[in-house]
Amino acid sequence: MFSKLKKTYFGVFALFFAVLAVSSIVANYSVAYMNISTEVFARLNVLTASFYCVLTPLAFVLGVLGIYFKNDHKALSWSALIVVTIPFLINLAQMVFSLMDSN
Q1: 72: burial class by Cβ within 10 Å (0-12, 13-18, 19+)?
Q2: Contact status, residue 73 vs residue 9, Cβ threshold 8 Å
């Protein structure tokens, strides 16, 4: 009855959400350089940052689940983890350098 394991798709969804997370952070940076009013900037900035803050942990967790489960796409899961971690580390480094400059 349980001899055949079903294929799971955590890796596929992790990579999908990782690409969405990266596109949202790119949109966030592009909003900063647009020639728009302060109100529109505030709305777009909050919207894109919120998408990034939701999608990044979601992609990371799905990637870890894809690596953990036996019958999943491991290469896609690793790709998702790499794609979502690199922009996060870049933002973290920028924040640390900014904090070091302010002190």
Answers
A1: buried
A2: yes
Bigger pLDDT: 5 vs 80 = 80
What pLDDT, on the 0 to 100 scale, is given for residue 1? 47
- The amino acid occupying position 40 is V
Q: Are 11 and 66 contacting, i.e. CB atoms less than 8 angstroms apart?
A: yes
User: In this structure, is the dihedral angle defined by the CA atoms of residues 89, 85, 60 and 70, taken in order, positive or negative?
Assistant: negative
CB-CB neighbours of 52 under 10 Å? 22
> Where in the chain are the domains?
10-102
Half-sphere exposure of 103 (CA within 13 A, CB side): 6
The one-letter code for the residue type at 102 is S
